[in-house]
Each structure stands twice: as C-alpha cells, then as structure tokens.
Specification:
This protein is elongated. The chain is built from nine helices and eight strands. The chain folds into two domains: 166 residues, no CATH class; 66 residues. It starts with 8 loop residues before the first helix and ends with a helix. The protein is an alpha+beta fold. Helix 2 crosses helix 3 and helix 3 packs across helix 5. Strands 1-8-7-6-5 form a five-stranded antiparallel sheet. The chain has a three-stranded antiparallel sheet with strand order 3-2-4, with no helix packed on it.
C-alpha cells in the first residue's frame, strides 16, 4: 500500500511565503559587508568594508541554500553591527533575514532575534527549514528570554506569538520529513516488487537493499536529509543493476568452427555478381624477382 502523508505540504503551509522568528545564540565578527556594493563578504575580504555580526542562525540558514546568490544588505549595519537586513535568492526560493534586538538593548547576542521570510515553493521552504534545524542542533523557536520575546512580537508582529511561531517552524519541519518518508516508502515498494519476482541469483541483492533502506530511515530519524538522499541514490543504482540481464544480448556461439569451403564460395559468388572468379584479394600478385646468383658467383671468383 502506498504511503500517504497525513496532510499535503500545500495544505499545511502557506502557498506563497513563510514568516519565522528565531533566537540568535551566538554571533561574532566572522563576516564583512562590502560597503561599495552592500554585499556580504568573508572576514578576509580586502576591499572597502565594515564588520557585520551575522549570527549562528543566519549563517546556518544561508549555508543550507543549494545555489545562493551573494546576499545583499537592504539595510546595512551601522554603529550596531548586529542590526541589519539582508536578502538573497536560491533558484525559485527568496530569503530575507532581519536582525533585531529584543532584550537588554542588544548588549548580548542572546538578546537578538532574526525574522526570516521565505518565499517560493512550499517543499523547498520546508527542506530549508529541516536542514537549518539539523545544522543548529537545537530548536530556533525556543527563546532565551521568552517574556521579552513575547512582548516584542506583540509590538512588532501582531499576527505572530510564541505559540504560532513555534507551530510555523514545526509545520515546515514536519512537511519536509513527510516528503522524505514518502520517497523512502516509494523506493521500498519498487524494491519489494523487484525482489518478489527475482531469480535465485538476483536474491543476492536483498541484503544491500535492506541495508540501504535501514540507512535511509536512520538518516531521517536524525533529520539528515542528505543522508536520506544518498541512501536512496544507492537504492536506485541497485535497481538499475538488478534490471540489467547479462544474458539479454548474448549471442550463442556456433557449435562448430570448421568449414567445408561452401561459405567462402557463397561469399565469392555474392561479391562477384555470380562469376566464379575470385575477388581481387585472392588474386596472385606479381612479385618482382631479382636473380643475384651470377653476381655472387663472380664475387667469389674474384
């Protein structure tokens, strides 16, 4: 029976965008802003620049984008190097991250939060959230100072509170997991169908199939989406090898390799238009012959 997700991704998530608020826990001067083009640069950038504190959340999220454009700051950091807004795109996915202080005037990194706006296909948004949570190692919706975070949301984002924000994160996370689980179950059905009709020789593939299915499920349990994809790719390769019949294009060798000459004569008649003469390749070639016997005799006599 085909596995079905409890809810479709489109029903769980907003069709156009997701807005998430996350706790920043660590930030350091590991990046710069190119002050000429307002682009995010590494800390070793040598052009005109200034320091920006990106934070662990923004760094982890940007690292999970498969094909990101260089992030550009629509709001550059000033005296407060941790207050900024940046934007980037990755394929059909658009990402905007806003960094703001919400506790103790932003004297510590734990007093900052990020407002993340994702626009694009729901499944791509969900996958980005799954990978980001996995990279962080802790739930980004858990705030270090919950009372202050709740007050900030009431003032600055009246349609979001601590509970709805947590649910938004979890909906995306669950949608991504269910998509991966469906991919695993689909692959299991394919392998089961193939193994149920295999010969004894092909049963040797069963151990490899079971091992990769186990690895895929284990990777999913650890929110390791790349690990799931690697296991599924190995399973796909196994299915391809199982479908290749080594005897499919086998040509049976003749029982005897001797010839009575009739096959050659048939070839001669065919190439000569019915004439019995041999083709040119069989005609005797004129080989020049030089008799050196007289010369050798005369030399010996001398």
């Amino acid at each position: 029976m085909r596995h079905r997700r409890g809810d479709d991704v489109e029903n769980i998530l907003d069709a156009k965008q997701s807005v998430l608020v996350a706790q920043v826990r660590r930030a350091e001067a590991s990046h710069k802003i190119d002050t000429v083009h307002n682009l995010l640069r590494g800390k070793h950038f040598t052009g005109p620049s200034s320091v920006v504190y990106l934070g662990d959340l923004a760094g982890a999220l940007l690292a999970q984008l498969p094909h990101p454009e260089t992030p550009v700051f629509s709001e550059s950091p000033g005296f407060n190097e941790q207050r900024w807004t940046l934007e980037t795109t990755s394929g059909d996915l658009s990402v905007t991250i806003v960094s703001r202080s919400y506790w103790a005037w932003g004297l510590l990194s734990s007093g900052y939060l990020n407002i993340i706006t994702l626009e694009g296909p729901p499944e791509e948004r969900a996958r980005l959230v799954l990978d980001t949570i996995s990279a962080l190692g802790q739930p980004p919706w858990e705030f270090a100072h919950q009372t202050s975070a709740s007050r900030w949301m009431k003032r600055n984002a009246s349609d979001i509170n601590l509970k709805t924000n947590e649910q938004n994160w979890k909906n995306l996370h669950r949608a991504a997991r269910e998509t991966l689980l469906e991919a695993i179950e689909n692959m299991r059905e394919k392998t089961d169908a193939k193994l149920s009709a295999t010969t004894d020789a092909q049963q040797a593939w069963m151990a490899a199939v079971e091992d990769d299915l186990h690895m895929a499920r284990q990777a999913l349990a650890e929110d390791n989406a790349p690990g799931v994809e690697r296991a599924l790719a190995r399973l796909e390769a196994t299915l391809i090898r199982m479908n290749v019949d080594p005897h499919e294009h086998h040509v049976q060798a003749p029982e005897t390799v001797t010839s009575d000459g009739s096959d050659v004569m048939d070839l001669v008649l065919e190439t000569s238009g019915g004439r019995t003469s041999l083709p040119d390749v069989y005609e005797e070639e004129d080989v020049p012959f030089v008799d050196l016997s007289n010369d050798s005799t005369s030399n010996e006599e001398e």
